[in-house]
Each structure stands twice: as C-alpha cells, then as structure tokens.
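Quick one, T. Sequence first:
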Amino acid sequence: MVMLAFRAGSGLRHWIHGTTVAVVAGAMVPTLANAAENGVGFYLLGSKGPLAGVLAPPGVYFQNDVYIYSGSASASRDLPIGGRIVANVDATAYLDLATGLWVLPHPVFGGNLGFMATVPWGGQNIDASAVLSGGGLGVAANDDVFTIGDPVLGGTLGWHSGNFHWNTGFLVNVPVGDYQKGELANIAFHHWGLDLNAGVTWLDPAKGWEVSGAAGVTFNAENPATNYRSGTELHLEGAVTKAFTPQFSAGVVGYFYQQISDDGGSGARLGAFKGRVAALGGTAAYNFQVGETPVSTRLKVYREFAVENRLEGTAGFFTVSFPLGGTAQ
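Structure tokens:
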C-alpha cells in the first residue's frame, strides 16, 4: 500500500465529514455543551446528571470541570467509478472548563435566577486515514491543537418545593475562540449556538436517594468559514444516586443524543448525516470542608453505544465546585 500523508487535506476532510472528527466544549453550572459539523455540537453531553434540577442558593460560585474523551469512528462508501473507500478516525480531547455562577439574592417569578459564564481551553488530537480497497492507495492525516475555545454564557431560573427541584435555562455559544479554518482539530466552533434546556430532581434527604433528568434542544447558526449549518440537536440526560454518608454518594448516569433536523448550507456537501449516540456510566461524589468553605467533587465516566455518524468512545468528567467568599447563603 502507498500511504500519502498530508495535513487536513480537503479531500479526506470532506469525505469523512459527518461521521467523525472532534469533541468539544461549552459548559454551565449546573449544566455544562455534541453532532453535526465534524460530528460534534457545542453542548457537552454528560455535563448534567445528578442534581440536574437543582439551582444553588443565592451567592457566587466557581466550578471547574476537567473533561477527557477518547473515541473512534469508521465508515465506507462505494465509489461511482468502482471500488470502495474505507475511512477511519481516532480522536482524543482533553479540556478544562472554568465556570462562574452568580445566583441573585432576590426571588424572580417565585424562584432563583442565576447567570453564568464558562471559558473552555485545552487540546485535541485527531488521526484519520482513508484506503481505496483493491487499489492499494491510501491517505492519512494527523492534526492536533492546544488553545482556547468559544466562551459560553447562560442563565437558569430554578424553583423548589419539598423534595422536588426544577429549573429551565439557556446557553449561548459565543464564536470568539481560536478557530483554524481547514484544520481537522478545533476546540472552537466559529458559529453562534443556542441551547434551551430544563431539568428536574427528586431528592429525599432522609433516605439519601436522588433521581434527576434533563432535556435540551440546541440550535446552530452557520459557520461562515465553511458555510456549514449544523442541524437542530436533542439531548436527554439522567441519573440515579444514593448518599451512603453525608459526604459520599454514588450511582448511575446516562445520556441520549439525536440530531432532529438536517444539516444545511453550501458546505454540507454530503447530505444530512444525522448523528445519534447513547451512553451509560457511573458516578461518585465526595463533599468536604476547607475552613468554612464547602467543597463538592464529582467523577462521572460514560461509555457510548448505539452510535450513528459520530465518534464512539469513553468520556470522563472530574468536577470541583465551591461558593466564593465562604459558606453559601
């Protein structure tokens, strides 16, 4: 076989478009921001889960999420001139998402209103190859990046009643991150995006059980660098956890994603390529005090399956959050 190496060549890049490439960012407390152009959207799947319906009490908070994803994808297609081309992609992303949250001191519509901002930064590595069966000809590409992504702004309005907690909110992807046109690896999206979401939690403090669910819809504007507009995306997330001590809890988590409208724009040369993925995993949390400041930590690990037109892999989150200025009100 003859292997021709190149950096983000347009032929391979456009062919594997829609079945591959990146995993990136956008985040929020208590939510954080993935599928269409390059097989990924700005809502980070798995960022919600436990306590998805709970908005923190009035105060100012900081949350830091470390996110790691490793996945792969393969696809094949018959060529009009005969033969078959087979493409493979391996991708790894490692991101840090720093989020500030301010929950207003006065009630709004009978609930609490919070505003947040997240700045993602980190890296991504992509290896891609395509081979023409029977012809002995192949191409390969590798790309990596370490930079800052698009910031995400948002708001959440939350309510409480007995053991029930629920909220609704929005996220906005602001396209000012470091985006490199024509490259395989990018952690910025270079287009505006809006995610509308809601969550609900049932929490029994006496028995320690918690059940949470969240749903959202992501709308994407066109990327002016590629003339590609990702379709509308639906995401669902859930969790069931049990507190074994006042400090330690553990349980199961999962998510489901479905692209519900076609991609568009002149850059969408390969058609709709609607993405789909499901994932299940586990979570554990530990809470402790540093002086008078309560600190919460949580680990979540997801394994993906039932994938269409996306990478299939393993995702992990490690989260640390605490109020600024001591104990929250």
